[in-house]
């Protein structure tokens, strides 16, 4: 009696406390003080009298259900308190009283969800099946509670096995069919999905899958889901059905003899590559059946496991400047800092004659004169201007040929003069090997593409060393790319496309292999079949299989010396028909989710469009889906690697011309030869009287290619001691890009940075006077050249080698780290270190930084601020970029240090070099969800455009230039500046804030009343928005107190 009174006294105040705002904190506190155990004791006491006092039991059961949801050990506590039989007994006694029964079922569900393993052998399943009835509108709440409890119970594999052995799986299928057919108004979606969850858990075991197939489960679910595809409210049901079908569909290996790369590279003697490192700086990857549990409908799904990966050892988080090599080795890097010992006595001898006219400022007449000279001589001269080629053995360069033009005689006759038609006859092979043909092509159709020259590109491409010994030039890389005049919104996803694609791929077999195309050769396919080719710089497509007349399965090649990292693709396709929607299925993707599910499109380049004056990569493709398929990599096929699942990227595309030559790529390609020729042109463009430029070789890569190192700053204003001292004492900024070859967006951002740094912009001039820039524009040339996505030729992820790099296997990392060590040893550690990357699963541009306090706080550790002190200056630059760069979003940034990232450049430079502002800057492959590029302007009185804009090369280059602007503002805010510099900065950056407000209002007004389908609106979106963005980004933020 006393125990019952105690229970009543406990329940009365607890109900008011735990069913009001702030409940979560109070419940966690109660659990920590033994509240769960006390409630269970009270339940046992309250259930003993006959009949039990339900006025006490009901609120007590409600409390247990609520507290149990937050207590991860609740099931174990129930078992320890011997309360399992009490709960089951209460449920059995109240089978006819649905209110009491429902409360008991809530507690059973919580017990099963949190570790109570004995429920299955105590008769809980039999009890639940008595409660779950065929379709009825009565006692729906009780039926739902029973189904949810059963689903929680079946998460246990032993309980699932028990359910199969007792024949419950067939009963669940019949119950689902009954509720599906009778619930025509879709009022009981949660009950139908609950039954599906039970089936999903049972099919996690092999016995369950076999029984499911034997019970015609595939046919039943496939038929039922067809009725759901048109209704958006039924997406939870469609998703769960798809997961079950995919799980039970017979697994197949990829149609390859081995998933290892078709290319291999012999490693140096005594050098052993480390096991492949999964994961990315910012990307979360995993393998296994548990991926089914991830919510692919939520693009912001950031694995909660990251919190468990946080480094909580303060000693490991503290900066620890140590050397990983003998100190005498650092002397070799003195030669890489010529700016510190440069003799400027010849400064006054520099005249205007040394300054070459920028290529983009030539007149059309001048261009034609230059075009008509002998091509071989031009290429030879360009090769002489290219530093890397000077160091190459002339015998190592090889003959390259441009890929054949479209096989369309009428089009060729229209585009080219009749006397040169024979030389460009595509039927004769179409290769542009004659200098006359190439000269004619360049003369008639070369566009004024800034900072690009086909001649420079050819010269550099001839010096490239590839494993496959490339003989072909891809047309887009040779001809160049001009950004389109407008930005394209993210693709609006049509409802039902993904679900229909996934389910049909699991039920409807392909007609069969109509044609098999290996993409390393250029032989034509069968009649009516597309022809594929990828054996060129950065190309990646291993195999194409025609499965229907206009549908192809495509297989990417793994990284060299690896059996994984399938994401980057870049290939040529020709012999297409006009206005036919071709369907492509890339069937060996690896990441569990992709921005292709949230508005991202691939890119396409048309040769015919380029030769008609529109040389550009464009976002393309519709009905794009990304989903898990039925292919699996076995351990044997994977060369010993554990089995994993693959994902399919599927899209439809209509080519703009018949018999065109088009190129498709994961993202805007940027090859090694493009980078090297770009550096040649930048060096010619610079004004040597103002820009100090030195291009050196950091090292030679495993593949024998050169990794360039740039030094950029301002020339000293005079030979006076004060000016020379200011030159030598400028702080360093160290920038890198493209350690991961598939992240081509990082190179476009770097391109924008480099072009801004050598430009005549007054802000760039002032920035050069403030800093010395050390830049490695491409840290993994071999990976980029050979079409890898993530690794170098050693098969290693180079951004996981910074702790202990070796000069044999990871030369670019070893020497980049050595240079940073040298700068630190002479007291010149960089003020800012930034590694440019691309991110495949997030939108916007953002940075990862390093913070001890934020890491410990996020991990839930107590932080003694008296013991742990930290300069918060690491946040200043991201805050500045959030104001000046339209694509940058501060809210997406993170400053946490994970254990799995301890060997990345960002963390190592922060720890070992003591660089406070050490960052990884991530640029999305997709678009923006915040800021001006989100594009939330009202277009119609009744509609708005919310999907945002996809980032193109122009926006990525803009990000690179805005990063430079952010560095200038950081310098003005963080370092002592002369009055002269401050005056120049104020003059350049001081625009009134009201101009910003007025411009924003003008943008909004301009968008009102225009339909997004009109070309005018696209023009406004693409041109005017970017122009206004530029104006707004230059607003002065000095002295405004906004940080």
Automatic annotation (TrEMBL):
Organism: Athene cunicularia
Keyword Cytoplasm in record: yes
Region called Disordered, residue ranges: 266-313
Full protein name: tubulin-glutamate carboxypeptidase
EC number: 3.4.17.24
Reactions listed under catalytic activity: (L-glutamyl)(n+1)-gamma-L-glutamyl-L-glutamyl-[protein] + H2O = (L-glutamyl)(n)-gamma-L-glutamyl-L-glutamyl-[protein] + L-glutamate; C-terminal L-alpha-aminoacyl-L-glutamyl-L-glutamyl-[tubulin] + H2O = C-terminal L-alpha-aminoacyl-L-glutamyl-[tubulin] + L-glutamate
GO MF entry, a single one: zinc ion binding
Domain of life assignment: Eukaryota
This protein's record includes keyword DNA-binding: no
Gene3D superfamilies named in the record: 2.60.40.3120, Leucine-rich Repeat Variant, Zn peptidases
């Amino acid at each position: 009696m006393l125990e019952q009174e105690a229970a009543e006294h406990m329940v009365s105040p607890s109900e008011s406390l735990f069913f009001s705002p702030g409940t979560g904190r109070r419940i966690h506190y109660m659990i920590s003080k033994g509240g769960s155990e006390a409630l269970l004791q009270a339940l046992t006491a309250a259930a003993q009298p006959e009949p039990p006092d339900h006025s006490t039991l009901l609120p007590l059961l409600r409390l247990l259900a609520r507290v149990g949801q937050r207590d991860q050990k609740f099931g174990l506590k129930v078992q320890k308190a011997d309360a399992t039989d009490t709960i089951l007994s209460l449920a059995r006694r109240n089978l006819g009283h649905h209110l009491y029964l429902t409360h008991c079922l809530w507690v059973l569900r919580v017990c099963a969800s949190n570790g109570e393993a004995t429920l299955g052998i105590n008769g809980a399943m039999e009890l639940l099946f008595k409660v779950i009835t065929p379709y009825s509108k009565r006692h729906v709440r009780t039926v739902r509670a029973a189904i949810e409890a059963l689903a929680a119970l079946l998460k246990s594999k032993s309980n699932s096995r028990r359910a199969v052995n007792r024949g419950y799986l067939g009963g669940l299928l019949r119950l689902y069919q009954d509720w599906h057919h009778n619930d025509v108004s879709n009022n009981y979606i949660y009950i139908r999905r609950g039954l599906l969850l039970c089936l999903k858990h049972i099919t996690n075991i092999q016995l369950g899958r076999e029984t499911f197939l034997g019970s015609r489960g595939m046919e039943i679910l496939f038929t039922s889901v067809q009725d759901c595809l048109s209704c958006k409210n039924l997406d939870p049901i469609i998703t769960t059905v798809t997961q079950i079908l995919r799980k039970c569909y017979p697994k197949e290996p990829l149609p390859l003899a081995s998933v290892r790369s078709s290319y291999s590279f012999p490693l140096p003697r005594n050098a052993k590559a480390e096991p492949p490192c999964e994961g990315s700086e910012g990307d979360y990857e995993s393998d296994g059946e548990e991926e089914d549990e991830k919510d692919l409908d939520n693009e912001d799904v950031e694995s909660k496991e990251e919190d468990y990966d946080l480094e909580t050892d303060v000693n490991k988080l503290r900066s620890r400047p140590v050397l990983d090599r003998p100190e005498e080795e650092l002397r070799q890097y003195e030669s890489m800092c010529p700016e510190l010992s440069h003799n400027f006595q010849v400064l006054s001898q520099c005249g205007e004659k040394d300054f070459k006219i920028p290529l983009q400022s030539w007149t059309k007449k001048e261009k034609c004169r230059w075009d008509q000279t002998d091509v071989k001589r031009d290429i030879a001269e360009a090769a002489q201007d290219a530093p890397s080629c000077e160091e190459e053995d002339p015998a190592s360069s090889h003959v390259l040929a441009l890929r054949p033009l479209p096989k369309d005689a009428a089009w060729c006759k229209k585009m080219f003069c009749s006397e040169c038609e024979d030389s460009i006859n595509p039927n004769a092979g179409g290769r542009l090997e004659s200098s006359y043909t190439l000269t004619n092509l360049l003369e008639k159709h070369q566009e004024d593409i800034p900072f690009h020259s086909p001649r420079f590109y050819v010269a550099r491409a001839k010096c490239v060393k590839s494993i496959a010994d490339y003989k072909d030039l891809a047309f887009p890389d040779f001809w160049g790319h001009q950004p389109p005049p407008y930005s394209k919104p993210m693709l609006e996803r049509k409802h039902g496309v993904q679900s229909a694609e996934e389910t049909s791929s699991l039920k409807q077999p392909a007609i069969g292999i109509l044609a098999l195309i290996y993409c390393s050769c250029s032989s034509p396919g069968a009649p009516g079949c597309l022809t594929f080719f990828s054996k060129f710089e950065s190309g990646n497509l291993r195999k194409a299989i025609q499965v229907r007349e206009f549908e192809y399965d495509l297989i990417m090649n793994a990284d060299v010396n690896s059996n994984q990292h399938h994401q980057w693709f870049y290939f040529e396709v020709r012999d297409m028909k006009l206005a036919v929607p071709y369907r492509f299925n890339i069937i060996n993707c690896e990441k569990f989710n992709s921005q292709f599910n949230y508005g991202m499109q691939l890119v396409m380049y048309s040769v015919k469009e380029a030769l008609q004056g529109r040389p550009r990569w464009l976002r393309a493709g519709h009905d794009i889906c990304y989903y898990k398929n039925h292919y699996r990599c076995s351990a044997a096929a994977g060369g010993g690697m554990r089995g994993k699942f693959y994902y399919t990227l599927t899209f439809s595309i209509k080519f703009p011309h018949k018999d065109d030559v088009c190129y498709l790529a994961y993202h805007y390609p940027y090859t090694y030869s493009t980078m090297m020729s770009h550096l040649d042109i930048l060096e010619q463009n610079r004004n040597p009287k103002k820009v100090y430029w030195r291009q050196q070789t950091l090292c030679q890569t495993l593949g024998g290619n050169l990794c360039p190192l740039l030094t950029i700053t301002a020339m000293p204003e005079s030979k006076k001691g004060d000016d020379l001292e200011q030159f030598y004492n400028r702080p360093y900024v160290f920038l890198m890009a493209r350690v991961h070859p598939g992240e081509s967006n990082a190179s476009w951002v770097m391109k924008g940075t480099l072009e801004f740094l050598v430009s005549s912009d007054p802000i760039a001039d002032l920035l050069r006077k403030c800093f010395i820039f050390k830049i490695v524009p491409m840290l993994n040339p071999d990976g980029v050249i050979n079409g890898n996505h993530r690794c170098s030729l050693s098969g290693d992820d180079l951004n996981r080698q910074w702790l202990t790099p070796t000069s044999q296997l990871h030369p670019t990392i070893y020497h980049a780290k050595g240079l940073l060590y040298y700068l630190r040893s002479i007291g010149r550690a960089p003020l800012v270190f930034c590694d440019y990357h691309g991110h495949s699963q997030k939108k916007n541009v953002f940075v990862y930084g390093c913070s001890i306090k934020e890491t410990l706080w996020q991990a839930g550790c107590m932080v003694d601020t008296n013991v742990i002190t930290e300069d918060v200056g690491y946040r200043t630059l991201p805050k500045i970029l959030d104001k000046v760069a339209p694509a940058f979003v501060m809210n997406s940034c993170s400053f946490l240090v994970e254990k799995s990232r301890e060997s990345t450049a960002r963390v190592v430079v922060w720890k070992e070099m003591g660089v406070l502002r050490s960052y990884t800057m991530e640029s999305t492959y997709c678009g923006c969800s915040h800021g001006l590029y989100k594009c939330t302007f009202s277009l119609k009185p009744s509609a708005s455009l919310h999907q945002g804009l996809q980032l193109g090369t122009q926006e990525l280059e803009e990000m690179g230039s805005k990063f430079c602007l952010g560095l200038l503002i950081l310098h003005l805010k963080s370092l002592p500046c002369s009055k002269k510099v401050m005056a120049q900065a104020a003059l350049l950056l001081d625009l009134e804030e009201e101009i910003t407000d007025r411009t924003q209002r003008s943008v909004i007004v301009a968008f009102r009343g225009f339909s997004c389908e009109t070309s005018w609106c696209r023009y406004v979106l693409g041109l005017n928005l970017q122009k206004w963005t530029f104006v707004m980004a230059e607003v002065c933020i000095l002295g405004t107190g906004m940080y």
